[in-house]
Amino acid sequence: MAALAAPGLARAQGEAIRIGEINSYTAQPAFLQPYRNAWLLAQEQVNAAGGINGRRLETVFRDDAGRPEDAVRLAGELVNAEKVSLLAGGFLSNVGLALADFANQNKRLFVASEPLTDALVWSRGNKYTFRLRASTYMQSAMLVEEAAKLPAKRWATVAPNYEYGQSAVRWFKELLSRAKPDVEFVAEQFPALGRIDAGATVQALAAANPEAIFNVTFGADLTNFVRQGSTRGLFERRRVVSLLTGEPEYLDPLGDEAPEDWIVTGYPWEQIDTPSHTPFREAYRRRWNDYPRLGSVVGYDTVMAIAALLRKTPTLETEALVEAMSGLKFQSVLGPVEFRAIDHQSTMGAFVGRTVLKNGKGSMADWRYADGKDYLPSDDVVRTLRPQA
Asked: Is 20 helix (H, G, I), strand (E, B) or coil?
């Protein structure tokens, strides 16, 4: 019997393991081009080391252009026509939720790289969806730890008007109010993603006369907000706490206009010299003649998480993959990470620090790595947030 099975086994080992990756490449290139570069680097490294039990990894990339309906259509094509073994990717939270729903309905594993909304793993979480990146709850909790130290009592918020922005503001307000019951939120602005009227937004925030501001805008919206806020004096004598702003993909476009002394989450790539990060940074620079962004870390670690998963189970059958993914541990660029069994959220952390200008460019100073496992609610709380937990 073994002799009869051997030729088929050899053929199976020779076939590539196909991953279907869907992302908003044309809509969010600042993050996703470095992401894809690092994805390819990680795939090349895995394959050069012998692949997965002799089988190469192969990725079929698709661009959803930031549209949930396109993402769902492409997911169907990847599963039915391209015969991928699992799905991965996602950037915008609304797109990530659409892909998670597709994964649940079609019983396919979806490893969400980037969508930050907590609904992905809590209120709308499902058996087939796992998320790598530190969520809005986690990063808001990291920032609240610093915001609570400020003397400010009157706060304003500004965030893009879709799932990610709404989730971040909700958690920041709730967690800061819990830490400092005397705080007051005096203004909220929710501009449309990619279409901020920065002058009007800044004027509305200034009219409320807050002592501090929580910012969630990113990309071109952040650039416009910073420029208008600086021109109109919004940031004078006011502290700003800002999600994602320390990431080079968002700091770099500002050049010497980058704000100083904002409390941020980000990625001080040039300053991190750890046994897991330094080899990654140098390999990325050799391969692409460029420095990594935070997107690079997310792309690389998504592949490494999938590779760790595939080494853990001998089959590509979805139910086996889902079981193996639950509680999966792997060594990420930033340190050890685990995908929690209770809610499928990974414990990847984030860097928290303050912005500074260095050589005419925004950077981070006084930073620390906040381990994600320390910024997640208890299992009992998760059971109230994720009914199916």
From this structure: strand
